[in-house]
Structure formats: C-alpha cells, structure tokens
Fold:
Amino acid sequence: MTLEETAEKIRTMEIRGAGRIARAAAQALHDYSMEDDCTNLALYRQKMHAAADLLISTRPTAVSLPNAVNLVMKPLKNETDLKTAKQNLEERALAFIRRSEEAVSRIGTIGARHIRDGDVVLTHCNSEAALACILKAHQQGMDIEVYATEVRPRNQGHITAQTLSDAGIKTNFIVDSAARYFMKEVDLCITGADAITVNGSIINKIGTSQIALAAHEARVSFLVAAETYKFAPCTILGERILIEERSPDEILPAGMRKNLPNVTVRNPTFDITPADYVDLIITEAGVYPPEMAYTIIREQLHWDTEEMNSDFPYCEEE
Ligand code: RI2
Structure:
C-alpha cells in the first residue's frame, strides 16, 4: 500500500480503530522510508515530515495516531547521517507496531482479571483492547455473556458481534438506545478509548458517555481498556481534543435530506465521558484510576511539559 492509499483508507475508515490506525500509520512511515531514494538527509527529513502530516490529518480525534507518528518521527531531528536515520526510523516504526500488539494482548490478560465467571459484560463499538479482555476471560474458561451495541451510524457493532460469535461467546446484539434498558442485567461495561485527557476523561465512540451514565446510575462498573499511547500529552498544556464530525451522508442520504430543508444532520463520531463515570483504565502497564492520567502521560509516555513545548509538533491543533 502506498502512503496515500493508507491515508485514504484511514480517512474513509476502511482502516479503523484507534490502535489499528496507529499501527497502519507506523507501517506507512516505515514503507515510505524504505522506498525513499533521497540522497541527502535534509530532503529525507522534509519528505518524512510531509508524510507524517498527511497521516495525522486523516482523523483528528484518536490521539494514538499522532502519538505513534511522533514516536517514529521525533528522534529524526537528532540524526546526522542519512543511512542511519532511515534505518533507525524504520526500526522505530516496526518496534511501535510490535509494542502495540503486545500491549493489546497484555491488556487482555490484565482486563480478564476484572471479569468474574458468570458475568454479563456490555461493550460499545469495536475495540480491540476491550475485546481482548472479554476474549481472554472466555479463553480462561469463564462463562460470560455479552451485550454488544449496534453503533450507529457505521455499525462497528456488527464486527464485534461477529468476533464474539466466532469465539463462541453468548452475545446479545442491541440498538444503541437500548443500553439503559438492559443495564439492570449487566455486571460490568468495558469499552475502548480513542483518547484520554490529563483529567481522566475518556473520548470514545459516540454513545459511550450515555452508557457510562446509565452504568453509574445502575451502580455497574465502567472499565476502559486502552494502551498507554491513547493518553493525550497535549492536554497537559491545555489543548483540547477535537471531536471529529463526519459527513451527514453516514446518517441520512442526500436524497432524503433534500426534502428536509430545515433539518441539519449532526454526526459527531465521539463523545467525552468524564472521569467521574469511569472506575478503572486497564493499560498494558497496569490498571489505573482515571485520576492518574497525568502520571501515565509523564511516566509511561515519557513526556514532560518542557519537552512538549519544544518538541511535540503534532499537538498544535485544537
Ligand atoms: P481500539 C474506535 O474508533 C472506537 O471508538 C473504539 O472504541 C476505539 O476506536 C478504540 O479501539 P473508530 O475508528 O484501539 O471506529 O481499542 O471511529 O481497537
């Protein structure tokens, strides 16, 4: 796949999921560097930065994407020799992909410890990290049942239902608006995250915050499964996470909208769940209360504010 093809697939959500788009971006940078035939370092840097910018521009909310790109790109500025610069960048990209896959697996192992035999688990959207916990618990022989939401408008819940069904897990497939109705039958909720801010708020698929609210009301635990690179360093500096709003075509086709001249279709892709409604965040580094987001950004992502001010080029947009 060319760089442009990867960027387009991320933009159109053919490649989707916060972890998957991060890995796809790292792979695209790796391949782009491999194919590059520049003869000088300055030009190589320039081309790689343009590639990084293109990838980051594809989807604005999942912070895994700029975090992955930044991890691959950041040390490039210290390189002095083209051959080594290329080699190191390519190694960093592959290392990120490897670490990301290991992180999901480790989250599964840690998350499964929070599921008990006989539990009914509700999940929303299609999160590799959340599913890793559920699948691991099932593999360990726990008898669990899942409620999986449909996830309008892109129906990612269909993928989740397929995965759960393939694994032989008893699954109830419900429309998004039925989450509160069924909450009395649920023991815990597990979702993924596209971004986690310094105050522990979770940005995830639209509808997540309503589910968290319903769980809170019903005294049902609400867990978030997320790799540490879903935490947003730029929020330490007061930057906000931009919530992507996608085309109205995903909800109502243009032909139908034509007859509704006074109607505006709004299609935010994500919403924000305040830390108050989140019990725990399961990461590959262990389980944290959302209040510890700052510590995770400082210690796990190795960011400090001084470095960020000078060195986090992909954190400038709102
Ligand atoms: P993993 C997805 O975003 C969903 O919001 C999901 O909860 C989140 O990414 C995390 O997914 P989208 O790409 O990284 O479907 O855990 O908009 O797979």
